[in-house]
Input
Amino acid sequence: MSAGAAKLILELFSQQKASGIIAMGGGGGTFMALKAMSRLPIGIPKICISTLASKDLSKQMGASDIILFPSVVDVAGVNSVSKIIMNNAATALAGMVTLGTGAGLEDQQRIAISIFGNTTTCVNKCTELLRKQNYDVLTFHAVGSGGSTMESLILSGFFHGVMDITTTELADELCGGICSAGPDRLTACSAMGLPQIVAPGCLDMVNFGAIDTVPEKYKGRQLFKWAPDVTLMRTHEEENQLLGKMIAEKLNPAKGPVIILLPLKGLSQIGAPGNEFYNPAVDRILFDSIEKHIQNKNIEITYVDANINTPEFAIKAVDAFLSIRS
Output
């Protein structure tokens, strides 16, 4: 039913016979509604009144901009509470449809870029330079949900290119950290044939919560307290060897141009010379592993004599991206 509903909904919107969509349901109804709505482009007003609105529905919603309204009471019939909720939701949809700007997505070329606290300086500079070139730049926080959302939007055809500066979610996937984006991270862009810049941003760290939540097997490792609820673990030799192979295997099927940029002075802000995670020998193991396992001859590997979290690295990254976009 959800597949059929999605097909009918897409037909209605493609024929400009609908301007917004609203649905209501319990478990089954919510599932069908979200699956159908999530097929519509970003910007089309979408509302779902649901008994499950307080649950994690990220899998059903994907990267869609659906608004969830908690039903508060069950949706079986109209009563004094459900009547208010339904009225508010319907009024919200009417407002979005009638008072919205009516503008679609901008005509600009859209670029996805991944960011983390330890790569913010670099990504901010990249964004500034790309916007000067009239690109629409969308940043994704590499905390798991950010990376998976970015991958989903890439697969939907939303972007024209990707600058994957912060691939740290791969380290969390490998080591069981809290910022894993799943096994499909770093695959969508290759499948879609889009130009991509890839850097090993923050692959020198695995993310855990408060220090007392770090798994017992990692208690003796090099740990850094980034915040009271964030503990970073420095990746070691074997992990970097495996990460290099993982990156290469994900990029080898790429149908479009790829440039891998490798920063010689550290993979993160705290991986810079003089800082806690600076370890060029371990970084070199990662770089060598990437070079060893890259088999796609259309993938270019470039070394940059800078720390990743610097304007210098950002300039090199944007220049590289523009070279494969032209």
About this structure: The first helix runs from residue 2 to 14.
